[in-house]
Amino acid sequence: MNSVFVYCEIEDGQVAEVSQELMTKGRSLACELGCNLEALAIGCELNGIESQIFPYGVDVLYVADDKRLSPYTTLPHTSIIVKLFEEQKPQIALMGASSVGRDLGPRVSSALHSGLTADCTSLVIGSHEDKKLGKIYEKLLYQIRPAFGGNIIATIINPEHRPQMATVREGVMKKEIFNPKYKGKLVKLDVSKYVSDTDFVVEIIERHLEKRKVNMIAAPIVVSGGYGVGSKENFRLLFELAEVLGGEVGASRAAVDAGFAEHERQIGQTGVTVRPKLYIACGISGQIQHRAGMDQSAQIIAINTDPEAPINAIADYVITGGVADVIPKMIKYYKKNTK
Ligand code: FAD
After folding, report:
1. How far, in Å, are 16, 51, 59, 252, 314 from residue 36 at the CA level?
2. N or C end of the chain: which has fewer CB within 10 A?
3. C-alpha of residue 279 to centroid of ligand 1, in Å
4. Domain boundaries, given as residue ranges, for the chain
5. Which atom belonging to ligand 1 lies closest to the Cα atom of 303?
6. Which residues is 135 bridged to in the sheet?
7. Level-2 CATH architecture, domain 3-200
8. Whether the domain at 3-200 and the domain at 221-337 fall into the same CATH topology
9. CA 255, CA 253: separation in Å to the nearest integer?
């Protein structure tokens, strides 16, 4: 059976978080399918990159190393992937739903006529019976994602064309080393066979990289505020609590839309996905689009004036009360007890 393939994004010699998460998912899919997990790294000065990739259980790593391949540009990366996929015929190909993956994925899938599901929130293996054709498809990739404005969860399949391609956002899948000593096979590609001069018509003259201001994905505690927090000023209480707890501040979309918090703090279907040790939901009703970004948290505390708020159904602890009453008490008692 053909492989599961992961395209590894590389920046400053580091494999991106989203690619590490996808290799973890790819490994479990490959185990279920009984096939190899393969990965592809494209860039320059990639010597030793395999030490970051093999521990995720990668059986074969293809490396395209050429100074013209970094920083990322669309055409040469597309050409390399398309040709490699034509040779290796993977059954599944995964990419990050990052700016690079969103640029690359559609080009590759369109060149291969393979189809692509963007922003998947879950990937599982399953079968499908096409009653019209009288055919049963085994071991398909169920590409699961919210659809129709988040009102339904759609399962998308691609029975006939290969590879079955999907992109996934950073933080959605869990990252886990498979075996720190895992050793796969390293295949160095002869780049000249995969690209042509016309792939390099675009030259990057200058690059400005903006560092991420908030990193909620890595935070062990997220204090998150919703529309019920009431104002930007009240959000300061959340920042204070996050500071004493050593966490980050998140927000619901309604809070972001109301201008209480910056957009990069939005958690949920159209924001980031977090799975901290503790998630404190303050004045958040807990609509499905918000829950999609936080329901994997290890422990959830909900603070809400409404005892029937939907967030309470997934919370480990519920505090019924107003944010402005409860949060200052939490700050006070936490400070007192950690002296
Ligand atoms: P509300 O639903 O207005 O809830 C406010 C809560 O605060 C209530 O439960 C209320 O009881 C409580 N409250 C009021 N006063 C107080 C007080 N003083 N103290 C304590 N509690 C109080 N939402 C997201 O969050 N993230 C997303 O990524 C996202 N993506 C979306 C994508 C699509 C396509 C769509 C259609 C919607 C999306 N939404 C998203 C919006 C989502 O459906 C909800 O509208 C939103 O999550 C509601 O935010 P909220 O819980 O802060 O506000």
Report:
1. 21, 18, 6, 40, 37
2. C
3. 15
4. 3-200, 221-337
5. 20
6. 130
7. 3-Layer(aba) Sandwich (3.40)
8. yes
9. 5
| Spatial contact of 90 and 40, defined as CB atoms under 8 Å apart | no
Per-block mean pLDDT, blocks of 10 residues, the chain (339 long) = 94 95 98 98 97 98 96 97 98 96 97 95 95 93 87 91 96 94 97 96 90 86 97 95 95 97 93 94 96 94 98 98 96 85
Q: Can you tell me which atom of ligand 1 is nearest the CA of 252?
A: 25
CB-ligand 1 contact for 273 (6 Å cutoff): no
How far lies 295's CA from each of 111, 153, 253, 276, 284, in Å?
A: 37, 15, 16, 10, 13
Q: What pLDDT, on the 0 to 100 scale, is given for residue 335?
A: 87
270 lines ligand 1 (CB under 6 A): yes
Q: What residues pair up with 11 in beta bridges, in sequence order?
A: 14
pLDDT of residue 339: 64
Residue 280, ligand 1, Cβ within 6 A: no
User: Domain 221-337 is of which CATH architecture?
Assistant: 3-Layer(aba) Sandwich (3.40)
**In Å, what is the CA distance from 42 to each residue of 6, 109, 239?**
12, 18, 40
- Please report the pLDDT score of residue 209 as a whole number: 83
The model carries a pTM of 0.84
